[in-house]
Amino acid sequence: MNHSFAARDPRRVRAGLAALIVVMLVFPFVASQFGNSWVRIIDVALLYIMLALGLNIVVGFAGLLDLGYIAFYAIGAYTAGLFASPQFASVIESFVNTYPAIGEFLVWLCGPQIVQEGIHLSLWFIVPLSALLAGIFGVILGAPTLKLRGDYLAIVTLGFGEIIRIFLNNLNGPVNITNGPQGINMIDPVRIFGVSLAGEAGSGSTVHVLGFSLPSVNAYYFLFLVLCGLTVFISVRLQNSRLGRAWVALREDEIAAAAMGINTRNVKLLAFAMGATFGGVAGAMFAAFQGFVSPESFSLTESIAVLAMVVLGGIGHIPGVVLGGVLLAALPEVLRHAVEPLQQDLFGRVWVDAEVMRQLLYGLAMVLIMLARPAGLWPSPRPEDRPEADHPHGAESVGEVKA
Amino acid sequence: MRQDAVAARAEEGLAMLQVSGASKRFGGLQALSEVGLRIMPGQIYGLIGPNGAGKTTFFNVITGLYQPDAGRFALQGVPYTPSAPHRVAQAGIARTFQNIRLFGDMTALENVMVGRHVRTSQGVFGAVFRHRAAREEEAAIRARAKELLEFVGIGHYAGRTARHLSYGDQRRLEIARALATDPLLLALDEPAAGMNPTEKLALRELLQRIRADGRTILLIEHDVKLVMGLCDRITVLDYGKVIAEGPPAAVQSDPAVIAAYLGASH
Hints:
The structure holds two protein chains of two kinds. Chain A contains 14 helices and four strands.
């Protein structure tokens, strides 16, 4: 049926996947020989892949242009910040000082330990909680935009993204919840079955598991890899389902989709919620990984970077989006590391500062990709993009004809 | 005749679709005024009229795309409010569009599978975990969609992207997609528009097969020959009003209809 795409032969796909998995498993051990920073770059890239896959549900599947997606990343990160750090103790203290009545109630509710040390939920609570909260915000922010499309939707979502960031920036008064521009510090590292992925105090960021010891960044690498794998799995399953078809139908023609009985409101909200969920989990992981969150990590530039990953990779096509995520997240960092030594080698001195050069090359790469591959680096395969000679009705295949 | 007798016996209960007093105004334009019609089960019902008579507006009103200003609507005797397209599809009216609206980037099969959406129920949980019920439902959707593609005669194009089908096949695909919603009433907006005589003949044969399958059809059509040969009853609209109603032969010789089409008395 689908001759033009030989790569879809299931055996080759499986072999390719197996090879990819082996490379992914071996990667951190090789890379950490050249310094932990390389693994760290990929850790961050994995978080971006999760984000890009989440945004891909909204933009790629359902065709809703969302420029405020980073808000959900922020919500996930601040969920971890509030519920897995000493921050909640400051929140209670601030309530006691400003609104004693509410403060007393909170003290009574939470008990002395939380008042002293804040809330420290484990990973097993933080991940679902951040997913849930982000999902709820996805619905709340999606609801007012239901009747909007295209540019208008983009502008409103952009506004929502900024609103969330500005809230985080200013929610340090009258009661201090987010600690304002200073951000939340000392967020607990991820701890799985009693093993801290940051390494125990004094271990020099080395994690000991079952007799092995590996650098903290490698431990996080595997956690993020598992979460990424899960995200890919869920994305693929959603795409090939009744719901995935409804999303694509919505993208292709909203009126026809409604006429086919698709409740466009619910299906859109579900797309926003699902996308936000991925963003929330990625955000919580980001917070635990960095140990610190502040509003400036969630600016509009970040939303656009994630959107660029989706578009440049191949909008709506999961492998393409993953590729876009890896390239755009890793490329700037690689350039940061490579630009100066390269100039040193070539010219004997540094002509252009790494930071400047990096931005230049990054921008150039984007322009070139879009010129050479307008549908993205790895777009969805179409069964046939060319008119076929064997077609009994000749070449007058038309998309839409005004009758 | 027999159907008329049946209709006379049970005034409200037996009509597949009963519309009365449907009105719709766009600003200063009264697009529909007090339009009513009554379609009996198993009929192919024609809605004709000159350009701008309000046929498509009427379609959009009964299928929930436009909100009517007034009117009563009942499907199989059960009143329904055409407040949203998806609710109308749920209630049992499926439609096609005058200018084809397929999901262009999806394959023909996927297009029809979307049509099954309203009669199936798996959500996120079923999609992710693919438990037994979800797998069975998915298989049933696929099987039904294939069956419908075969039924309309484009089964061999199942894997082809919708936008790459020929015009006549796109029309057929739209009908298959509408049939996938298990409609009580299939509403076709100018299905023969732009078709050549061979395609029209095939369409006519297809509509007869759909009726033989036990469905009721409401048809907007310009091609008088097709309408006259195919429809059991016809309503003629002009300037948003019903000017004639009845069996094709009677309508054809109605002076008001002739005047509307030829502009004799205006």
